[in-house]
Design goal:
Layout: H1 3-24, H2 29-39, E1 46-50, H3 58-63, E2 67-72, H4 75-88, E3 93-97, E4 110-116, H5 125-135, E5 136-147, H6 154-166, H7 187-196, E6 200-213, H8 216-226, H9 228-233, H10 239-257, E7 263-275
Parallel strand pairs: 1-2, 1-4, 2-3, 4-5
Antiparallel strand pairs: 5-7, 6-7
Helix pairs in contact: 1-4, 1-8, 6-10, 8-10
Bound molecules: S-adenosylmethionine.
The site of S-adenosylmethionine has 22 residues, from α1.
Length: about 280
């Protein structure tokens, strides 16, 4: 990654780190548990988290007794993660800012390396995966957690429908060519990438991520803090249009919730795992 691109990525994620910590990280607990179970995390294992955000994977791994190194390009994400570690009184997490394309870590150092909703976003995913494999011990495991088919990712569909209720020709996230966050949304492609990185016994498990939202505002906040992309897609809209889109989201969520207090949106998530 060029210095300029790295700088832009850092700044964009720094900007949403506080919101990400508050509203997004807590919603990843279920998927994190599924991934850590699949990887067989046990006390004393050395675990590397790449693109760790504010600790959705690192914190539960540490609670399971792993020795965790949490890395992320955004110093603000790393600061929030470190604050959570301190708050919980955990002594087994080291949080470091670094680019996942060039890990400043020794070869063969970790029992398990994982990246959740992380390297799927990277401009050079094969290189980042290669780095994860490099720093993992022989016979250790490498896993990645990624979103599946964007057409089935409901938070995206709700976002686009709400925006179109206000701006009928709102394009939404262009899907052709495939945007980076969905570069391995096809499980066959994910498997291929893991095998090309030199992993063996590769398997891909698909789980349903369920996200609960009680209002259009809550879904809007989640979207705007989940990734810098939604903010860019609405950058040219007025505050009135955004408020109207939140109202349209309210309506869509009410329809989905029926008589329940919250609406549940479901998204396909692939957990790809292999052995070095
Ligand atoms: C969607 S968040 C995922 C965070 C966390 N793994 C989780 O499950 O909540 C993506 C993370 O990737 C980080 N990131 C983006 N580009 C990166 C890069 N080149 N190297 C390391 N981290 C990167 C961002 O700062 C952000 O924290």
């Amino acid at each position: 990654m060029t210095t300029q691109r790295r700088q832009r990525a850092r700044e964009a994620w720094d900007e949403i780190a506080a919101g990400y910590d508050e509203v997004v990280t807590p919603t990843h607990a279920h998927v994190s548990k599924a991934a850590l179970d699949a990887a067989g995390i046990r006390p004393g294992m050395r675990f590397l988290d790449v693109a760790a955000g504010t600790g959705a994977l690192s914190l539960p791994a540490a609670r399971l007794g792993a020795e965790v190194v949490a890395t992320d390009i955004s110093p603000a994400m790393v600061e929030h993660l470190a604050a959570r570690v301190k708050e919980e009184g955990l002594s087994n997490v080291e949080a470091r800012a670094m680019d996942g394309h060039a890990l400043e870590l020794a070869d063969d150092a970790f029992d398990v390396s994982g990246s959740q909703y992380g390297i799927m976003l990277f401009p050079d995913l094969p290189r980042a995966l290669g780095e994860m494999v490099r720093v993992t011990k022989p016979c250790g495991r490498v896993f990645v957690v990624v979103y599946g088919n964007p057409e089935e990712v409901e938070f995206l569909g709700f976002f686009t429908r709400a925006m179109r209720a206000v701006i009928p020709d709102f394009e939404g996230l262009p899907l052709d060519p495939t945007p980076l966050p969905f570069q391995v949304a096809d499980p066959a492609k994910l498997r291929q990438r893991l095998e090309e990185a030199g992993l063996e016994d590769v398997r891909v498990e698909t789980v349903a991520e369920e996200l609960e939202f009680g209002s259009g505002r809550q879904l809007w906040e989640w979207l705007m803090n989940s990734n810098p992309i939604p903010g860019l897609l609405v950058a040219d809209t007025t505050e009135e249009q955004r408020a109207a889109a939140r109202e349209a989201m309210d309506e869509l969520l009410r329809e989905r919730a029926e008589d329940a207090e919250v609406a549940v949106l479901t998204n396909p998530v692939h957990i790809g795992i292999g052995t070095k």
